[in-house]
# Entry
Amino acid sequence: MIKNLERFPLPGPIRGFNDTDEESNIPANVLVDVLNFEFVRDGITTRSGFSAYSTSGLPSEYINLGHRFVLSSAVEDLFIVTRSGMYVESSTGVFSSLLTGLNYDYPAYAVTFMNMVIVGMESNVPRKFDGTTLRTLAITPPASAPTVAVGAAGSLTGNYQYKITFYSASGAETNPSPASIVVSPAAQQVALSDILLGSGEVASRKIYRTLAGGTLYYYLDTIGNNTATTYGDNIPDAQLSTDLVPSEFDSPPSGLKFLAVYKQYLFGVVSSEPTTLRHSYSSIPEIFFSGFELNVGKDDGQPIIGIVPMKDALYVFKTHSTWPIMGSTPDDFQVAPQPIHQSLGFYHRSVAFVDFGQGDVMVGFTGSSFSYFDGYQFRNVGVQRELGINVTGFIEGLDSDSFEWATGYNDREKYQYQCFVRRSGMGYNDRMFVWDYRYNSVSIFDLAGNTIFEWVGLKIFGSSSSGVLYKRGGFNDAGVAINQIAELPWWGIGGEFNVSFRFLFMNVVQWGTYSPTMNMYVDADSQATSLSLAGGMDWGSTAWTTDAGTYFITADIPVRNSSGVNYKGRYFKTRLSHAGINQPLTWLNATVLFERTRDMTRGTSVTNLGSMGVV
# Structure
């Protein structure tokens, strides 16, 4: 009888993930294989599904990046980068094209700064979006000099030359035009014509002039519009400003990536100089200065892979080190003389901020670990031996050349750090790595995406294999069943003697009358049981308790072979699996019931079970 059998209860609740070959040395409630389950207080439950959010306007190519933003209009908008274009949402789920013809395939980076969205990508010029118009971030200087000629009688005598600059509504001034030819008035005025007009963002033009016979160009006057093409100069030398024409207001470099805003400066890196940090003028992202460069660990052979501000410092991540940048202006920006002790480096897009109750810390992926960083030290969250957590095998199976595409997000509602990653051999991000920091547990979802964000109260992710934005929710993946797997490690029960396994007691909740499969393994033997048929009962039986369509399975499953003989052995493990439309599961706990025997074991161990083909 069952009451006379011994029990081995699964230590609850089910927690963690360990994909190493250490099954004999990890807690019995840590999963060794998991797909599409997330952690709840009492166990694990099927993750939510998804359905299409975008309805039209996006091309049938992968989504690279989604960026929500609020400009001075106080209206929140959604900016999307696809494989080769840029788009903005014009109405719910409908998108309008801003640009096509991007150079691909490179991850995109975006920040909102100075009332504009700024986007950078390798092999592309950086661009800005003001909510209406998409333009290159750079403001192109005037390409030709103004025409000059002697005019009416006036106060100028001598040899003069002129230069013109463009000045934007945002306060960005360009480098000057070429110098005009020399004009030589004699108590006369000078007439300027053919003054170039700028692009739509140019609000005015500034005029610079030499002193009589001089070579330096001083500020003369401003044409307060972008329409006039002529100007009359009759200002004596003594009335010129002392401000010289700018000569080092360079355009942002092409291919700018790893964008970050720190102390009102836009920072970034270009691939051709992978150890050099560049930044803009203060509050003017359109203007860079060749002298505003910081070399970070230049001789260590490590490229920069990310730039993230936190706690009044800017952290520059390289492949195997982290370097703090301190200071508030270009005059006192300083790179730390040494990297942080025993530091790693986060890939830029993988970083998300998580607050454990004492302020934000960074969470993200390095090339060899999943960790968090508090500004002082890294902790490898992916290896917590005291809890049995170890995801080293999963990380080693990722495509090491594609970590720049790893994209992290903090789902504060679920207390989850979620990151899209790419397994080796795949051409796109095909998995979501999920760390539940409330329960300190790791799971894996088979979601394929490149970007994830909250938008209009929804969790949205952009597909890495198609041009669709999806909203999370529901019990299927856009009409496709969610494949669910949860496998526990080997439980060593018999000790020196075999035991006779009699029943597996399962506590599973499911939403409907379907049949998930429980695979049970006893040493080298295995048995697959359909849970809905456990104990010979059917769905009409009172053995199933229903509450609004939810079924609580609490049956005892016999552990015996097809001849009705109970399996004997030392080791026992279970694997729950199912795939069905709108058919989620929750696994709360399990207990194996057994009877001891006097049969001696014959050398079977967890180590050699793998050679027998046992999962």
